[in-house]
Amino acid sequence: MALDEALLDWHSEGSIPPVIRFYEWNPATLSIGYFQQAERDIDLEAVKRQNLGFVRRPTGGRAVLHDQELTYSIIVSEEYPDMPKTVTEAYRVLSEGILLGFQNLGLDAYFSVPDTEEKQADLKKPRSAVCFDAPSWYELVVEGKKVAGSAQTRQKGVILQHGAILLELDEEKLLSVFKFSSERIKQKMREKLPEKAVAMNRFVDTPFTIPQCVEAFKTGFEKSLHIELVPYTLTEEQLAYVKELEARKYANDEWNFRK
Question: Which InterPro entries match (predicted)?
Fold first, then answer.
């Protein structure tokens, strides 16, 4: 999370070009949205008991358990050519590469568009703290089930969008880190989740690998945004800045438990 914020800062200053980054999490980590209330929504004892990481994202949205997944982030100026001004339409443009990436892997993915007033109302006032409870505007679904969740923030004239692309999904592990008002509500979520979210490997006999996915989504972004991606390596000074930001913010309880 510190690196995503640092990349946003550097891009806002004009010292680096737009960036698309792919990464994984070690250990598996629960990230909560910028506006979420940690004590209210999260079973912090369960997080600690399972040796999971815990961090508050700089972006909004609901909690995500980053486990067996590929995570991506995009850092790009709001003034980038043909970039829509609205958050929803920018999601569509930036997520097109994810859509093509899934298709490159042979999955019949498409954008979700909430088609009823009830579903649209759910986006404004979610019924649960779980990100993969339901797809929102222009998130990616296969066979009607969410396979990727994204979140976005805009700061200093720069868009940061990042998201989780599920290779595997452990429903019990996911549910274990949330608070529910009753066992009945938790059971209802347990029954509903497999109908709402699915991991990529459920659709294939041979599991996808991370390098295979990186290549597929890299190619997807290049085609959708009409760009060529070239490798970028951080300098020692940049790495030191990221470590300092991590210690000051994302590894700090004052930030993570501020709500």
Answer: aa-tRNA-synth_II/BPL/LPL (IPR045864), BPL_LPL_catalytic (IPR004143), Octanoyltrans_LipM/LipL (IPR050664)
